Amino acid sequence: MDIKTLPLDRPCAINTESDIPGAHRGSQLKGTKGDDHRSPDNFISGLFRNLREIAAKPDEDKVATSAVPVPHKPCALPMDSLRPIMISKMKPETYYPRTKILLRVTLQPERLMRSVAAAAEDEEGTVVLLNLYHQPDEEVVPVRHLLRAGDICVVKRPVLRSSSGNPYWLRVDHVSEVVWLEDTSPLIPSRWRAQVPDLKEDSSSIRARGNEAVKKQSWAEAESLYSSAIEAAKTPDEANFAYLNRSLANLKLGRPTKARLDATRVSNTPKVSSKSLFREARALYELAEFKPCHDKLSTLLSSDPTNKDALSELSRVNERLREKAAGEYAFHRMYEQAKKTPPLIDCATYSAPVEVRDSIGKGRGLFTTRAVSAGDLLLCEKAFAYVFSGEDGAGHTSVLIKETAQRVITGGYAHLITQIVQKMLHDPDASREFRDLYSGDYAPAPPSKVDGLPVVDSCLVEKIISLNGFGAPRTSKEAFVKSFSDPKHRRFGGGPTHDTCGIWVLAARINHSCTPNCQRSFIGDMQMVRAATDMEAGTELLFTYRQPGSLESYESIQKGLSDWGKVKQGRIDRAQPRLGKLFEKLENLLPSAGGIVGSRLPIADPYSLLSIYFMCSSEETNALDMGARCLETFGFRTAAFPPVGDQMAPRIEITRWRLVDGRVPVAFSHLFTTYQRIEPEFCALWKEYTRRAYSIIVGEGETVGERFPALLEDY
């Protein structure tokens, strides 16, 4: 939803044949015998040449480009049940089920496009390029800490790929299909075993090296060293300190479940009990388990009441508990946090007015638990995963080609896949809600764990993101303001798309309708959903997945919605072509619309312009009439009460709220200004209408005076 995509046939800054390995050549070589491998020396010299060419390119030309593979399930079988295969026996573009290949890395790996690439040889000495996808980003785990020359791995169910710059390569899309072997593994051939003296370093020394890595904020290195310190520990104290330190490293790496587990493994001794409680509380906070976090901090403070870190954390968690219970947010503070890059907001999810239930014919949906009014906050949700990609180049930007869908996706989409894959690898339990989201015709396999690793299906992750992901601005307030200064940012008439994207698992449950009853908005990685109309308890929430253009045809709209399968066909879609022909017959069109909500949106702008014209011409009564008609095109119902006594104009009130987009608060503000001139006593009502509509669009009403300063004036 609102994620920036381009048709594959549209010109863009990449060439699929040269930049995407095997985009064309692979299909030509499928099934042929793969026996034209380079010698190791030629392979290595060619690899270095390619890397030098990439390094020589200007930074603006180094856009990370990758292609989505043909969907395929990950191997869920243990290594012991697979038969070995050699590269020389493999044919290009052919899967070999129930097989494995043993590889040794021969050169220090490099980042190549969206993968980690390394030269690797099999037991016969045949060298290929090993491409590992969906590995952690460089700023999270530097490539030197992922793998090194001499490391040995097993790749399950390998497939030999082909590319224009290198005859053959192994692409691994599922992170669980690569198993790295310990030096002592019996699977390693004797000639590959490292011949080094067994010099055992004690746990304290290893932990000290980990502490040095912490000072450099090299968290992946620190985590690895603390793991070694745990293995080398000979006393409970040595193990305790190593576990506590590794808990911190895992927290910094974004692995709160592992951080919590490390904290709970510490034996309960006076030396470490306070630290272990604090580490566990911090992990619980990152897992959004705020009540258990509060309890741990309270326990800690009962024995150490002056602990400044615990007191500060307790104050923070109390704010989260209030947000979660009452939906009361400090929006000014959220905006300050949203100025940072990435704009990650420290807030809790509020979802009390809604619940997930079965929706007839549409799978699962989100429903109100009580009666709500237009403008009410229904959901304020922290993103499950979020990747910021700014227009100024800040954040993560890449290009992903979906050849099967004939699309190019720009921005943070590829990084979002990797982020969620890594989350499922390190915290499978926290990923259950994501796995349960709609995946179209791609059926997920039951969760499993093999060879010590959760089985992670990256193709399932991509499919779920494609059907449930949201594009988002840094803030909807910023996008709303830009919509009036720059036409490309207009929220209506087709709607904008965004490079920044994320997954909000509750909001993703909201089904599509071309006549929505709620509106989404964003502040950083927080998505807010507000009611756009009054609703009874048990009403299903609906919003628009894809905003139709003003005169877009029904067929074009349905094609744009085809990714979501069979969606409910809104009557507004079918009315669009007829409206294009009758656009100029404004007065005749209104009574003929048959009450179809939203079918008259194409004529909202003319009525709005007429309202402004009459207001500037001091024809206030006509301005009020045109403003009311503009609102009626959105499905609003208005009631006009004749002037009483000395009143100069009728009193207009809203009796039903309906569709709300960026034009509605503007229309309200025009009516407010008109009343400000002739009947100031009605201004309070229209000020509240404007604030409420503004809050539906941007998520909050506190900053309405910044966009509409007239509301702050005396009247």
Give a structural overview:
The protein is of the alpha+beta class. Among the domains are: 227-329, Tetratricopeptide repeat domain (Serine Threonine Protein Phosphatase 5, Tetratricopeptide repeat); 332-543, Beta Complex (Beta-clip-like), CATH 2.170.270; 583-712, no CATH class. It is 37% helix and 16% strand. Helix 8 (256-264) runs antiparallel to helix 9 (273-286), helix 13 packs across helix 15 (458-468) and helix 20 runs parallel beside helix 22. The longest helix has 19 residues, at 308-326. The relative contact order is 0.08. The model is unreliable at 11-29, 490-494, 550-554 and 568-584 (pLDDT under 50).
Quick summary:
The chain is α+β, with helices and mostly antiparallel strands. Helices cover 37% and strands 16% of the residues.
Structure characteristics:
715 residues; alpha+beta; Serine Threonine Protein Phosphatase 5, Tetratricopeptide repeat; Beta-clip-like; nine-stranded mixed β-sheet; 16% strand
The helix/strand class is alpha+beta
N- to C-terminal separation?
42 Å
> How many helical elements?
24
- Described by the principal axes of the CA atoms, the overall outline is globular
Examine the secondary-structure arrangement and name the CATH architecture of one domain: Beta Complex
Helix amount: 25-40%
Radius of gyration: 30 Å
Total beta strands: 27
Tell me the major beta sheet: 9 strands, mixed
- The CATH topology of one domain comes to Beta-clip-like
What is the name of the CATH class of one domain? Mainly Beta
Return residue spans where pLDDT drops below 50 for at least 5 consecutive residues.
11-29, 490-494, 550-554, 568-584
CATH H-level superfamily of one domain: SET domain
Quote the beta fraction: 15-25%
* Average pLDDT level: 85
InterPro entries: Gramillin-biosynth_MTr, SET_dom, SET_dom_sf, TPR-like_helical_dom_sf
Protein name: Related to TPR domain protein
